[in-house]
UniProtKB/TrEMBL annotation:
Compositional bias annotation for Low complexity: 38-47
Domain VLRF1: 207-365
Family membership noted in the UniProt record: Belongs to the ANKZF1/VMS1 family.
Protein name: VMS1 homolog C1827,04
Gene3D superfamilies, per database record: Ankyrin repeat-containing domain
Subcellular location, record wording: Cytoplasm
Entry keyword set: ANK repeat, Coiled coil, Cytoplasm, Endonuclease, Hydrolase, Nuclease, Repeat
Entry GO MF terms: endonuclease activity; hydrolase activity
Taxonomic source organism: Thanatephorus cucumeris (strain AG1-IB / isolate 7/3/14)
Amino acid sequence: MAKPVGSTRDLKENIHVFNIPTGLLDVLSLRDTSLVETPAPAAAPKHPATPPQPTTSGSTPSCTACLGANLSDVREQRSHFRSDWHRYNVKMRLQDPSHKPVSEEQFARLVQDLAESLSGSESSTDSSSSEDAVSALLQRKKKRGIDNEQLDDDDMPNLPRSPIAWFHAPNEYPDTQFGVYTAVFPTKTEPAHYTNALRSLQTESPEDRLWTMLATAGGHFAGLVVRVKIPRQGESSKSKKAAPEMEIIKHKTFHRYTTRRKQGGSQSVNDNAKGPAKSAGAQLRRYGEQALREDIQGILAEWSEEVGKSELVFFRASVSNRKMFWDWENAPIKKGDDRLRTFPFPTRRPTQAELMRCLIELTRVKVSHLSEDALRALEESQRATLPKPKAPVIKAQVLEKPVKEKPAVLSKEEEAARDRWTRLIDMIIKGRIDPLKTFWEKNSDISANMMVPEWAQAQTTRGLTTLLQVASAAGQEEMVKWLLEDQRADPTVPVPSGAIAASAFPTVSDSESEAPRVAGQARKAYHIAANRSTRNVFRRAAYAHPDWYNWKEDVGVTSVLSPEMQAERDKKKTARRANLRDKLREREKLREEQARVEELAAKEAEARERELAAQVKLSTPVAGPQKLGGSGGPSGANSLAGLTPEMRAKIERERRARAAEARLSGR
């Protein structure tokens, strides 16, 4: 066992991922953490693994709003609090307390899809541009109503979703962790093989190990081809100057006017959403987009040999702009290429300096110093912030809809027969006796005892099986009498148990309850009669033709009705009606007499009130002298108001004359 060193001072300050010291590489192993769970590529996890937080002091700066924030000191913590990633998570939590925080890699993909919103500022760190990007992401989240973690990965191979794989050597380098971006590993590398993949990066290759890095947003483009591992053949150990670890082979940057300043969004996207604008600026932006596309394709065609030899191709572009990298003839990059990678962290405006920063970030091994207790506490806190897995949704079994049976195709004869039955039943229900007799004479094959077809029972007669039953339930007296006596319809046919009760047809207006029957006796046409007058037809027939049927047992008629009984009943009914009319007439006469008496009493009371008021007025003494025309004062003046001068003079003369008469009479 190697001797523990307790620190990493014997290692160089910055460890290149392609040039890890052999002593460190031999003892590295993947750190086992309950938070790092990378399933099979077929089911990519929704949340990235949470790496240890790097720090160099006893305190551990952290961020509770962002998962996997790498903060080594307070300065980096403050810088993190000003980043778009942190502000986005904080604002989303304020809008929705149940919001799941996105990782740095997921936020980078969100920004790539909205790359045009970051291009309005003068510098790559302008705060207004960042604010526009965060606001645009929040607006898109609100409008589209989708989860920010559901990214468009149709153009990308299935990569490990954990942004950083953390290794350690607990015996040789205690309380120290080493992180490497999983994007540098081959596609579909399982976590168990991360250590072997890291060792394979250190092997010398006779050919150059090249990476291609491309980025475009808001009309800006930056691209470079870099040799990430320089062969060390014949290197002099006495050289004082350290040899470079990477070398840029190709690089190019340019810009085209494609985005309106401070507004964001390319002109083509705006045209698709609102229709093509006709301004001069819109025309310039469309031309700039076309020129940018041609320039990028020209650069890639020029670099086709280097791009073809590259092990990995990192790119940043919105979903609408990704096609310009591979959707053209003889493109060196094909859609779905296993070499394709997106940057697993946020990037700024595409410039050569920004690509160099991304290159250093990808190829530099991250070193963190945390004790096992600190790591355990950190994992517990991170585990508490992780959302609970949703319960599997059990789909309810969809009941199969019953297949509707198609109506049978009828022949012309069957259609004619149905038409005759429909007309016949309609005339019986409505009581149209004369048209029925004419119809009966024309169709000699019709008889009163024919059974109603089943289709008519279901559609029209509501379960009744004979014409007599239909007429009785409809309350048509003349129709029942004609069928029963003239056509000798059979009244003994029982009514089916599922048939309607009496008076169920809409033509019946004076419906009554069914006639009583003996217990256990089936219903007959007599029992379902809609009213008493219809039942009396059966009773009269039972009296007139007692030998036709056993009227009491088979038909259900409990009592017959003779003409004498009918006459006596009519006589009693007439007398009862006459008596009722007399009572109503007397009651009306009494009501009129009472109203007359009340009217006279009211008039007498009113006269007495007027007489009493006059007596009270006469008995009231008058104080002071009385002048002609009523009391003086304002009331006298008011009495002359509105009169003509001639009338006022006349009234004054009369007043003076009455006053003179009063004085003379007083002598």
